[in-house]
Structure formats: structure tokens, C-alpha cells
Amino acid sequence: MTTNHARLAAIVTAIFVAAALRLVPHPPNFTPIGAMALFGGAYFGRRALAFAAPLGAMLLSDLLLGFHSGMPYVYGSVVLIVLLGWAIENHRTPLRIAGAAIASSVLFFTVTNFGTWAAGELYPQTLAGLGACFVAAIPFFQNTLAGDLVFTTLLFGGFALLQRRLPALRGPELRPA
Length: 177
Prior knowledge:
By secondary structure, this protein is mostly helical. The protein has helices at about 5-20, 35-45, 45-65, 70-90, 95-120, 125-165.
């Protein structure tokens, strides 16, 4: 297996393992969704794979978990978080990764809760209804943030450790921050 193939296999495997963690019992919203999208965006050299791997992993896990009406917003969030990963692709420092993880949580919270409100099933289609939707979701945000930070640390930190131990996983040199 060539260096590029080994690296690609390791990145894809990390994303699919993260998606599989959605299938084990966990606190509400404490999932690796944001982390795997951020990781994919930051590490895939091929842009198509940066989207395909996290979205494919989500789809496979959703086949087992079941589909729901909010999926377009969840998947849309994944696409936007991949773009955040692109923003740090060449400047992966702990501070930038942490900042991107926090931004991922905020983005996911905003997009998915807007989608809940826009569906018109739970909240009135008014500004007050939108506010009520966001306020009701605040208790779940702490788990989203905690999950994104924990899983981002595991994915980025774990892959950095693997790269140190396995030279075949090292990619091209990064530009200085």
C-alpha cells in the first residue's frame, strides 16, 4: 500500500469509526458528527472526498438509526462544517482546531434548530417562535459542544499521534500558521 493510500485509508476509517459511535448509547447530542466533518475537511486533499466520507458515514449510520424530517438540516450542517475544516487545513494548530470545533457546534445548533422552527410543526412561524425554538434547545447545546470538543480531540489528536508513529500516514508538509 502506498503512502497516499495508507493515509487515505486511515482518514476514511477514522471517520467511519466516528460515525459508528452514533450507534452506541450516548447522552443526547453527544455525537461525533461535527468532529468527523471538521476532520474530513481538514485532512482530505481531494475536495470530493472531504464531503463524501462524512456524508456517506452519516447516511450509513442513519440507515440503522432511522430517517427523520430534520435530516436536510443535519446534512447541510455537515457540509458547512467540512468547509470550516478547509479553513484550517493548512494551519492545524490546537487553538485553531479548538476554535473550529466550537464554531462547528454553534453552526450545527443554529442550522438544525432553524430547521426545526422552519418545519412549522413545533413552533409558530414568528420571530417569537424562532426565539422559543432556540431557547428550548439551549440545554442540548452543552452536549453538542462537549461532543464536538471530545471527538475533535480524539480524531485530530489520535491522527497526529499515529502520524508520528507511522510515517506512511504523513501527508505533505503544512505551511506555518
